[in-house]
């Protein structure tokens, strides 16, 4: 698997786990004209060992939304809510309209829609389930460079929505919010995007708003240790999490005015990779390993000691690995003229203490990228395994 197939995280690349092309009837346009593309007709399966939206290829639109249970709502209301949400997600992911539909996505196919559900640390106290809270949900340590806004952080429940069409994604967001009814209230909500399917001539790794090829080093589903690193095994302390994963969510603002002033060669040293094609500064192509020991004519490492990709490399972190599956965000231009833009960093791992935490600890000591970013919000969520046929998400916890 080349980098373009890394963890299947190529926007718009059809195929991969749980993806099926929808009915051929749907691929014909109005009046029998040939379909414009298969972007709309691609559907992702709701049921499975793992929830959709983790190894699913990056979609071009994303919404992240956290809810808090309403005062007085407990385990019973939470179970009913997860049952409603699961039924809605299943219908929408199949490209069908739910009851009392808003009509926002009429005409469009499922467009690779995924709706993924998670539980935050506070959920377990609110529902009397504290004894079943996984130790993995212990609060993340504070990092020196954090500038976190608690109102946009954490939450009892978390929903990640992704789709290759903006109307399909927004439609799902409205349906999820409507389903919450009196049981839960939105705590925070963030919108993100990636490159549209078909924008590049061939499948390629995504770029972020700094212009870097981002996602190359991700573990790949074909790696022998992929499942062990990303998904919770059966037989653990909290059996209801078997097949699940932990999502760390960070809203990371990019200081783009400062970044864009940096000449190209310095930008490349910040990461340790070429901007044009993502290849290591030590040569080769995007998928070539970093030659971390290689010295330049000046006797210094070609990939600097503080380069982001050196510091975050699994071999520098006792094998700590995570699956990064972000969306970019842009929430307008601030009063000071700077864009409120950056990365909705979402990473997946079987245990945050063996994924995000050790890597962020090292980055926080001052990788070269730190001067150009600011962590503004944070969340940690337990995302249970995928529902079996007839089951709703989280049923093994809530019943
Ligand atoms: C690699 C950008 C934040 C962990 C990379 C690469 C880029 C990049 C361009 C090299 C290409 C690749 O392998 O994907 C960014 C930007 C960030 C950010 C722009 C913030 C806005 C983070 C954070 C973490 C992280 C917060 C985790 C704590 C990693 C890891 C790799 C990586 C694990 C792969 C290293 C390897 O396997 O060689 N990042 N990153 N990054 N980054 Fe980040």
Automatic annotation (TrEMBL):
Its EC number is 1.11.1.-. Binds 1 heme b (iron(II)-protoporphyrin IX) group non-covalently per subunit. InterPro entries: Dimeric_a/b-barrel (IPR011008), Dyp_perox_C (IPR048328), Dyp_perox_N (IPR048327), Dyp_peroxidase (IPR006314), EfeB/EfeN (IPR006313), TAT_signal (IPR006311). The keyword Oxidoreductase applies. The gene is efeB. Transmembrane segments: none annotated. Belongs to the DyP-type peroxidase family. It is found in: Cell envelope. The lineage of its organism: Bacteria, Bacillati, Actinomycetota, Actinomycetes, Kitasatosporales. Residues 205-386 form the Dyp-type peroxidase C-terminal domain. Signal peptide: none annotated. Keywords: Heme, Iron, Lyase, Metal-binding, Oxidoreductase, Peroxidase, Signal. This is Deferrochelatase. Involved in the recovery of exogenous heme iron. Extracts iron from heme while preserving the protoporphyrin ring intact. Its cofactor is heme b. It catalyses: heme b + 2 H(+) = protoporphyrin IX + Fe(2+). Residues 51-194 form the Dyp-type peroxidase N-terminal domain.
